[in-house]
Write a structure and sequence with these properties.
The complex is a heterodimer. Chain A is mainly alpha-helical. In chain A, 46% of the residues lie in helices and 5% in strands. Classes of the chains: A mainly alpha, B mainly alpha. At the A-B interface, helix 1, helix 3, helix 4, helix 5 and helix 8 of A face helix 3, helix 7 and helix 8 of B.
Chain lengths: 242, 167
């Protein structure tokens, strides 16, 4: 998989998508995630001149299965939020319910640390990603009145999703959440994007980029995946930040 | 290509002096290759990503006319056992195909056994208005953990190669 991501990144236009000249209103715009983008961006000709279609189709079965799991869960949540004939109060309570779930899963993620990523306060979890992307979907945003009511209740701004999320006051217990695989993919692409060598401005000499090598050692994808492995140990108690 | 090769065994395409047993063996070989690809080679996952090929293969497998025993092979014929073997294999392959298309098997990978604290969830999604927030998180996390569990052994086995690429 690293092969494909690296070759795709080598292609200067590899991560660009053909923008369709559609005049979508602001409400209809799909907010991209790494999952949606990988299913949208075409395979670079450097990978294969004969195979068309999205780059993610070249990934190993297990990775595609993970992407599919995210998509299926997201669609299920969207179907519950945007269900027809449930009334405004029920829809509002569902949105509120899902926001609570995001808050709890984020609080639990505060106990997850990855080598070399200590500066990141919260490593994104699978649950958080699914719920957030579903609530930010155009189908969910369509119900403006519901979102306005939820915003008023939470003292949040309708234009900033992060203002809807607050840290629970009570200590959050429960097992550590599964890290979002999309987050790991983003870190992989981040490492790949670093240059192998740096050019000294004065002498014009190429220097080895030790920073990239350090990243590979401390944040290598393999390490991340092994470190962020599913914790099936006993329930842990994670004090929340007040 | 395999499907074109299969068509050469059809009575309309085969010359009159063709050995029916050879045709049966060729059909069995083609079905075996397809079955291996679907059941062991991750083909079910590939088919889910390519609806056209999936549709074509399903149409091929369910096409009774194409898989019928040639009229020249009677019940008492010496070629009959070979043809019956093809028919039986196709039946079991169709069942496996339909099952794996619903949920591809990744059994080729080493899978961690579920831990003692993991809770199992039923096949049906919960009613979102009836469950509490902890249950919803647990349910979604279980799905994420199950999908992720297959990635780990695959990545671990290629760990050294991955590091080489980055260096």
């Amino acid at each position: 998989m690293a092969d494909f991501l690296e070759i795709q990144s080598t292609d200067r236009t590899g991560w660009l998508t053909i923008s369709e000249a559609q005049h979508l209103s602001q409400e209809e715009v799909e907010i991209q995630t790494i999952y949606s983008y990988l299913q949208l961006v075409d395979t670079s000709p450097l990978i294969s001149k004969h195979v068309n279609g999205p780059v993610y189709k070249h990934f190993p079965p297990s990775v595609r299965s993970t992407i599919r799991a995210h998509t299926a869960c997201r669609h299920w949540i969207i179907s519950k939020v945007a269900a027809q004939g449930i009334g405004r109060r029920t829809r509002q309570s569902r949105v509120e319910f899902l926001l609570q779930a995001i808050e709890i899963s984020r609080s639990r993620s505060q106990g997850v640390f990855v080598a070399g990523m200590e500066e990141s306060p919260v490593v994104r979890s699978f649950v958080e990603t699914v719920l957030t992307s579903a609530l930010l979907s155009p189908q969910s945003r369509l119900f403006t009145r519901v979102w306005q009511d939820v915003a008023a209740k939470r003292g949040a701004s309708i234009d900033a999703f992060e203002t809807f999320i607050s840290t629970p006051l009570a200590p959050v217990t429960g097992r550590k959440p599964t890290v979002d695989f999309g987050w790991i993919l983003e870190r992989m692409i981040e490492i790949i994007s670093l240059p192998d060598t740096l050019r000294d401005e004065r002498d014009g000499v190429g220097l080895v980029n030790f920073e990239k090598r350090r990243c590979v050692e401390t944040r290598s994808v393999c390490t991340m995946i092994i470190d962020t492995s599913i914790d099936t140990s006993a329930t842990s108690s994670i004090p929340c930040r007040l | 290509m395999l499907l074109r090769l299969f068509d050469t065994t059809l009575p309309s395409a085969a010359p009159s002096n063709h050995d029916p047993t050879d045709d049966a063996n060729l059909r069995l070989s083609i079905l075996t290759v397809l079955s291996d690809w679907i059941t062991q080679g991750g083909g079910a996952q590939d088919l889910l990503d390519n609806a056209d090929i999936c549709r074509e293969l399903r149409h091929f497998l369910h096409n009774d006319e194409k898989h019928a025993v040639p009229e020249g092979v009677s019940k008492e014929s010496v070629d009959r056992p070979a043809w019956e073997e093809v028919q039986d294999f196709r039946k079991s392959f169709v069942v496996a195909f339909e099952r794996l298309i619903r949920r591809p098997s990744l059994s080729a990978l080493i899978v961690h056994e579920p831990g003692p604290s993991e809770r199992t969830y039923g096949p049906h999604p919960p009613g979102i208005d009836d469950i509490d927030v902890e249950d919803l998180i647990g349910c979604l996390d279980a799905i994420g953990a199950t999908a992720f569990r297959y990635v780990q052994p695959e990545v671990s086995s290629t760990c050294s190669r991955c590091k080489m690429i980055f260096h």
